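Our working data are protein records whose layout never changes between entries. An example says more than a description, so a record of this kind follows.
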Amino acid sequence: MKAEIIAVGTEILIGDINNTHAQYLSRELASLGISVLWHTTVGDNQNRLKEAIITGIKRSDLIIFTGGLGPTKDDLTKEIVAKELSKKLVKDMRAKNNIESMLKKAKREITNNNYKQALVIEGSKVFYNENGTAPGMAINENGKIIILLPGPPLELIPMFEKDVKSYIMNLTDYIILSHNIHLYGIGESKVDEVLADILEGSNPTVGIYAKTGEVRVRITSNAKNKQIAEELMKKPMDIVIERLSKFIYGIDVENMQTAVVRAAIQNGKKLSVAESCTGGLIASNIVSVAGSSKCFDCGVVSYSNEIKEKVLKVDNSILKKYGAVSPEVAEQMAIGVRKISGADIGISTTGIAGPGGGDKEKPVGLVYVGISTEYETKTYKLLLAQNKQTKRQTIRDLTALFAMNEARKKLLKGRFVKLSL
């Protein structure tokens, strides 16, 4: 099935907001074995939106529109889609009641244009919005599936998860399953080389996806039932694990912080963090995972030397002799936060994230990470600026990834976390 995502909104075209819909929906559709071949962005313009619809219908089997379902005159998506499909817009009483209830609860005045959102395309499958006033809808005709979703991510994502995903899956007579193997410490090109012989299959398919500091291998199969789909994936899964085991941090765990939190909870261990150059990023990543309160009690952002001394008990003489960016200070920070929190593992970061502040002896991108347990404390030196264009946020992200991975390895002694297997 060939799919296309059409994001509607002038604010996307002029760069006021990011098109996060395309990224999210592409990932979700790929997990269903559906190939997204086109991303289209079109402004709130009747003629250009009409052209996008006509083109999409000609070349795609599944077209998902995002945005343009609001109450204002320039919200035109369903009106133009309905016109091109020669269909009427009809009032949906459940959608109308939902709009009234939502606005009354928010103590907002209900105006006539609010009721525009209660109109749906005749014959469509309506997806009622539990987080906003615009319902979504789907039309399945003449071998084409057209889905309209609201623009705000807080409305689009829950609607897709709750209703749209199952709607799409029910249109096929087979099930689609995927497993994601997450890798750290190896580049995309090397993974491609190592797995070259299994990347050309059609069922299951093996895909490689890279993002900052890590790589994901997704294996997807389709079959009549889950058991057969799992059997189809077993051989490539075994191959990936055998060849890349030392780089795997988790299977179906979403991200590194999820792997760390799960590992800590499984082992009944507590984590604490003392951050300088990462400025609370590691703590933020950890607490973004549901259930992290079971393993995380304390995070200290010790950006100044004064806080390093007063809170973490870093020796003043060490700071003066070696400077804040040093393995000696990283070590004392990790020990300090572990002791004041009573955690099993203390994590520390100190470094130069840039773009200024570096010199020949301590360049931008120099970072020290400390990992402390009651048995030992180790520090690690990282040089993370590949060139002068390396961004400050990239250095912080890479530092956080490294630190969390080292904590994970301490918790699991080199093994990796599995969620759904």
User: Anything to note?
Assistant: Residues 65 and 278 are 38 Å apart (CA to CA). The first helix runs from residue 10 to 13. The radius of gyration is 26 Å. The longest strand covers residues 175-184.
